Amino acid sequence: MKLIGISFSHAENSLQTRGLELLRQRSEESVTGVGDNTEPMRLYSMTDFNMPVCNSNKSDGNVPESVEKFISVLEEADVLVFAISEATSHYSAGFKNAMDWMVVKSKFNAKLGTDYAITRKPIFVVTFTPTVKEPNGARHFDMTKQLLEKLGGEVIKSHVINDAWKTVIPGRTSTVYELFNDIIAFLSFYMPDAPSTHTKDDNSSLRWLNDYNDWDRKWKYEWKPIHKVNGMPWPRIPTEITDSDNEVPLKEDYKLRSMDYLDTPEARPIFDKQADIIIENNIKGIVDVGCRIGIINDILHERGYTDYKYMGFDTSPQPIAYVKEVWKDYDNIEYRCASMYNEKDIKVEFDVDCVIWSGVLLYDPDNHMELFKKLTVDMYNAKHAIIQEPCKEQDPKKFLKNMKLQTIEDDLELYAGIYSDYDEWTIDADVFSGRRKIAHVWI
Ligand SMILES: C[S@@+](CC[C@H](N)C(=O)[O-])C[C@H]1O[C@@H](n2cnc3c(N)ncnc32)[C@H](O)[C@@H]1O
Predict the structure, then answer these.
(1) Mutation test residue for ligand 1: of 358, 360, 362, 368, the one with most atoms within 8 Å of CB
(2) Are residue 276 and residue 380 in the same domain, yes or no?
(3) Which of 181, 124, 184 is nearest to 148 (CA)?
(4) To bridge 5 with a disulfide, which of 81, 158, 321, 336 should be the other Cys (CB 3.0-4.6 Å)?
């Protein structure tokens, strides 16, 4: 039978630890003197673990080494003795910190009281205190019992040992006789049946973790409500353009939120058509140039089309960091922060069937055909390409007067002339500059 004493004090010269040391000595005397088969109590204090202040709010069960060590000590025990100092009539911070870490380890499990290292373990609580005035030292017992029982522990008895400057002194094991006798009496009939602890991956913790990750990404990637003009998703640009030379800005480093109007359900038709082309042509190897968050992957997965390899790249670091996180568990989907002008950074190992150029060729109005050929044909040897470009003619409600739109729409017919086959569609999505040309080019 393993009896383990834990002092929740972080002090080197702790009263709680020294009090438990007397209990340890008493248990040693008992083992040698009485000869029962209970090992002497093993004693730990918070200084043996050095756990940081609980700093995790993520329900993935990951805890520091020091916490793992603490939890494995608890798991080994058949019976526990917790020495907890009273601090302003509450339990001490060290004790609560250790309990909080246990909750993190258990993935913030909603099934309180079923899944912790102390669940179904008998616990004796003791507080050593210099005061002699009742109920000092014992005022935290109710809340301590409540907390331990909430985590499934079984509090057998709580002891307060007063006048500790005089009674907790070297060798005075008589101070802990009553506590020790209670423990021995309990051990005489106790049969341990606590199951070994496990941290359950039940649905509640997984759902909690997903919700956590969504929430955390909102902060990390500066989530904002979708900006709308005329009731439609819109980029965050001035709504009054007076100078007729104003162009929709083309940047190489957008924040994730700069183009979030494209991530809305209203913008979906632009990408749904691209997904149709991929699925209808059974395309298995995809490179997505200037992919931003590569929303095509969401659509393909929503439609159950998952057996393909994908590499998307973009010069904008923030959308790429975000989407790498979102798809980190998918071996067939890769995102890179890279430029279409640096061929060495955009090579892939798989066979490429299709290159997507969605809203990207407009970046190179004088040279787009050469760029298209260099990557789609010479480098990737792809049989298909998808081009998406904004139409010059836009519904006035979806555009700004005096604003110039950059597009190579007029040159698309040149692709039709050069490559073996060509199809094109006009899509009208209810977003800013929502009229788009989608072309499917066979090489
Ligand atoms: C108009 S957005 C289109 C994004 C996405 N393909 C879509 O259809 O929603 C153009 C994207 O190209 C990226 N970009 C600009 N210059 C680039 C370059 N040299 N190489 C790769 N991506 C580039 C921008 O960062 C931006 O995310």
Answers:
(1) 360
(2) yes
(3) 124
(4) 81
pLDDT tens per residue across span 270-321:
999 999 999 999 999 999 999 999 999 999 999 999 999 999 999 999 999 9
33 and 101 belong to one structural domain: yes
Q: What is the pTM of this model?
A: 0.78
Nearest CA to ligand 1 atom 15: 252
Look at the block and give the residue holding tokens 């970046």. 363
Gap from CA of 303 to ligand 1 centroid (Å): 25
Same domain, 260 and 177: no
Q: How many CB atoms lie within 10 A of CB 207?
A: 12
Give ∠ CA 335-325-333 in degrees, rounded to 5.
Answer: 35
**Structural domain containing residue 116:** 3-196
Q: Which of 281, 326, 15, 1 is nearest to 160 (CA)?
A: 15
Q: How far apart are CA 9 and CA 171, in angstroms?
A: 21
Residue among 273, 363, 372, 436 whose CB has most ligand 1 atoms within 8 A, to mutate: 363
